[in-house]
Write a structure and sequence with these properties.
mainly alpha; 2 domains; globular
Length: 427
Amino acid sequence: MFQYINPVTDLNAAMLRVLVAALLGGFIGVERERSHGEQQEHAFAGARTFPLFAILGATLTLVSGEVGAAVIAGFLGLAALVVASYVITTTRTHPGATTETAAFAAFWIGVMAGAGALLLAGAIGVGTVVLLASKNRVDTFSRALTREELSATLTLAVIAAVILPALPDTNLGPWGVWNPRKLWLVVVLVCGLSFLAFIAMRVWGATRGLYLSGILGGLVSSTAATVSFATRSREVAGHEVALAVAAGLASVVMVLRVAVLAWISNQDVTLLLAPFLATVALAGTVVIAILARRGTGGEKAPDLSNPFQLKTALKFALLYAAVLLVVEGAKREFGSWGLMAAAVLTGLTDVDAITLALAGSASLPAEQAAGGIALAALSNTLAKSGYAVWLGKGPFRRAMLFILGTAFVAGVAAVLVIGPRPWADGS
């Protein structure tokens, strides 16, 4: 992840890293300056000081070529400055330690930028600014948590941070298709997405919060998002259509994600697949727009008693494990159509793996590979329709069948009329 350079021989790269560090530190400083100005509080660091903290971390890393003694010494010097400022400030007021902690974050963001991890530094920097700027909403959310909701939050932390890392990351079972850590990750995804929707609804309101969580859920797993929102629809009276729209948005994002993964593996396959993906995404988006214009239950978040349903997540993980076994059997036992059958079966739970496998295959004709990916996407659409009917409440079911049914029909028509055709090129 870290890529150290010589700042003398590679001056342009070094300047870029320092610039990124300064910008990220500046964002944090501007937010702190604004916050303290609104509250009329004294701040030991602001829009000029925070960029200097980040530049210090970046330059120490560049000059030393490692996160070693020089960086640690710089951090300890910063720590002494922060502690001294905090002690002096507490003699006059009783401040929190948010700004002081942000100073440490700015320094280490600079260290990451100096080491070449620009994407990681940017993500942490932006996330830090968002967290700092969301003070009022975060405080309101934490005070509104009930004992049951806090217990559920701790449960999620246990299954994600304690159980998941402890499980073996090895292939077990028939044909080695079951990886305990990956199977448990499915449980974490379903629970985590449900919890994400819970937080989003509490912070941003029912409609906007759900839409945001749906988009974010689609970046991870639209299938898990559908299962999560379908389960939630049984608890949220009057918000079923909004939940369906959120799940629909996750499916649209899934289509875009497939396009990106295919492009990374094989651009020729992506060009053949593009008309199909565009048709499916457009059909789903049109229906989502129609449903979103209807009443979706208002902006007030409903009274949710449990951020996620662990039982539903466990059932989905067991189904996922069964499908993995069937898929591997289809690959081994069928003839020339075995891979296509596997694509259909894989699509019941996941599209990413078969997309990468088919698009990256050197032995498959491009149109056949693209056709297999299309079959997996259509299979996944049918599977999500089944999950919606199985787990969702009446209005949620109807809305999801409207969204996914339209996308499925459009996708089938695209395959038949413009391709890609999995049976092409001698398949």
